[in-house]
Amino acid sequence: MPSIKRILVANRGEIAVRVIRACKEWGIRSIAVFSEVDRKALHVQLADEAFPLGGNSPQESYLNLDKILRIATDAQADAVHPGYGFLSENPVFAERLEELGIIFVGPTGASIRKMGDKTEARKLATHLGIPTVSGTLDPISDVSTGTESAERIGFPVLLKAAAGGGGKGMRIVKCREEFHTAFGTAKSEAFSAFGDDRIYIEKYIDAPRHIEIQILADTFNNILYLGERECSIQRRHQKIIEESPSVIVDDRFRKELGEAAVALAREAQYVNAGTMEFLVDSTGAYYFLEMNTRLQVEHPVTEAVTGIDLVKEQIRVASGERLVIRQNEIVVRGHAIECRICAEDPANNFFPSTGLLTRYQVPEGKVRVDNGFREGDQLSVYYDSLLAKVIVWGTDRSEAIGSMKRALSEFTVQGVKTTIPFCRFALEHESFIDGNFSTDFVERHFDSTRLTCGDDEEKIAAAVAGALLWTSEHQSQGNSEVIGPRREGRWKGLRFEGHR
Ligand code: ADP
Ligand code: ADP
Ligand code: MG
User: Are residues 235 and 93 in the same domain?
Assistant: First the structure.
């Protein structure tokens, strides 16, 4: 049982609820903060104490560093858990808390500075001999040097914000002529999204897979890797379905990625939970992409296959305790899948959907639902669209897919559009079932024009079925330009397929 007795949770939605529940299980008093619209939110109701932040915009509320520090002090919090997003990767927040004698449940400000900046993290990886995507090591100073670098790297390239996150701040440049305009736009987009306009270049890898390694480190130099998560099903460069293990990762590959992740964490003197993200190309070559110096949205799939409660471990190591588990005791058992249920319209390019949750019923039975909302809640335009995460575990991948399909069929939402129809589409798609997919799954396979029947569940299910039929018809016509699933399987035989 950790020495921490009072934790302020500087977040909202499902992740605030997740952390508050972990606190309750350990008899730790939980302290919530809330914006105006969140006055009656689930995280506020579940916490032992709750304090208003005022305002609704993130700047006024959950990003309001001074106000949160004041509440933490007044409420005599021993520690602050930042969740993900908001202040979770802000080194100043971690440092100001330390000055106040309050524990930040996360790494030190110095580690966040080192690993949270993508160019710095790439340099560290390069220094350790860990492969990175080819590109510039430093941000680009001006257009002409940028154009030269891009030509050297070879088009297409990706312009990326050094401070980027959440899938934002990325721009593909296909040829030299596009570079000038793209550079200007990328810089101003990065500044408005992250208050930092530094841009660097990476080679654009065609249809890679996103594989990441969960790590956990204590203050005694013990660093563990907890297997991988595959997060290749994405929209707008942001994950939507995640699973562990990945069908392309065997024991040897897991060890190789895990040891690379641990070496990087050691070099950054990293403490607490963190994730090293990698891209794997169709030849099986891997490249370090970035580190997320925080708890990740998809952490429950790792919890499901390892049996380790990551939030409790975060609190344990933040209290200064040693990790009790050893690397050779970590076993990846069975198969877990997570679907992100976001208030977005898959039929309209995943455009965020707001309004009143007139009906909201989450699935029950053999399933984990990390949920932040209830029927009658109003979804505002101010925050992230994530409503809930559905996580299932099965002895193998096909059992997990079956459980997820059953669970999603019981998830009823009315009042807003959600990603449920898309998730059901993906789970039925042969490329997903075969494990033969990459980050371009949505562009390649998802025909959203077939999902335009309004929010009636039955009609949507019919539309999904229609889209599947349409897809298979086109496949049998050999129309591979449009939706061809590359049946021969670029990923087949690359690693092993023991998790089908
Ligand atoms: P994960 O990496 O855990 O899969 P996402 O990329 O989906 O998470 O991001 C989780 C949340 O954190 C989203 O609300 C996203 O907008 C936010 N987020 C992530 N990185 C940043 C960042 N650098 N700046 C602002 N918000 C971020
Ligand atoms: P964020 O900080 O927003 O999470 P990442 O660098 O982790 O940004 O990239 C998010 C996603 O964008 C990746 O999972 C991948 O789909 C895509 N991506 C990023 N870099 C590249 C690249 N060099 N080539 C191809 N796709 C990329
Ligand atoms: Mg990322």
Answer: no
* 72 lies in the same domain as 219: no
Q: Please report whether residue 116 resides in a domain.
A: no
Same domain assignment for residues 394 and 304: yes
Residue 174's domain comprises 134-203
Per-residue confidence (pLDDT) for residue 369, from 0 to 100: 98
Does a structural domain hold residue 489?
Answer: no
Q: Specify the residue with its C-alpha closest to ligand 2, atom 23.
A: 204
Residue 85 CA: nearest ligand 1 atom is 12
Note whether 370 and 237 are same-domain residues: yes
**Annotation marks residue 294 as catalytic:** yes
Number of compact structural domains in the chain: 3
Q: Are residues 262 and 187 in the same domain?
A: no
Mean pLDDT of the chain: 91
List Cα–Cα distances, 449 to 203, 279, 350, 461, 470, in angstroms: 31, 30, 12, 14, 11
Q: Is the peptide bond before 156 cis (omega within 30 degrees of 0)?
A: yes
E-strand ranges in 142-218 read: 157-165, 168-173, 199-203, 209-217
Does residue 430 share a domain with residue 290? yes
Q: Of all atoms in ligand 1, which is nearest to the CA of residue 295?
A: 3
Cβ of residue 89 lying under 6 Å from some atom of ligand 2:
no
Residue 3's pLDDT band (boundaries 50, 70, 90)?
confident
pLDDT mean over 184-209: 94
Q: How many angstroms separate the CA atoms of 235 and 261, rounded?
A: 26
What phi, psi does 224 have (nearest 5°)?
A: -115, 150
Q: Is 496 part of any domain?
A: no
Picking from 59, 89, 105, the residue at the C-terminal end of a domain is 105
Q: Is the CB of 466 under 6 A from ligand 2?
A: no
On the CB side of 299, CA atoms within 13 Å amount to: 27
Model confidence over 52-71: pLDDT tens digits?
Answer: 999 999 999 999 999 999 99
pLDDT per position as a tens digit, 341-398: 999 999 999 999 999 999 999 999 999 999 999 999 999 999 999 999 999 999 999 9
What DSSP letter does each residue of 386-429 carry, written as one string? EEEEEEEEESSHHHHHHHHHHHHHT-EEESS--SHHHHHHHHH-
Domain annotation covers residue 77: yes
Distance, CA of 38 to CA of 55 (rounded, Å): 10
Q: Which two tokens stand for residue 372?
A: 């932040």
Residue 236 has pLDDT above 60, yes or no: yes
| Whether the Cβ atoms of residue 344 and residue 419 lie closer than 8 Å to each other | yes
Q: Looking at the structure, do residues 299 and 351 belong to the same domain, yes or no? A: yes
Query: Does the pTM exceed 0.70?
Result: yes
The verdict on 383 and 249 lying in the same domain is yes
Identify whether the C-beta of residue 279 lies closer than 8 Å to the C-beta of residue 300: no
Q: State in Å: Cα 167 to ligand 2 middle.
A: 7
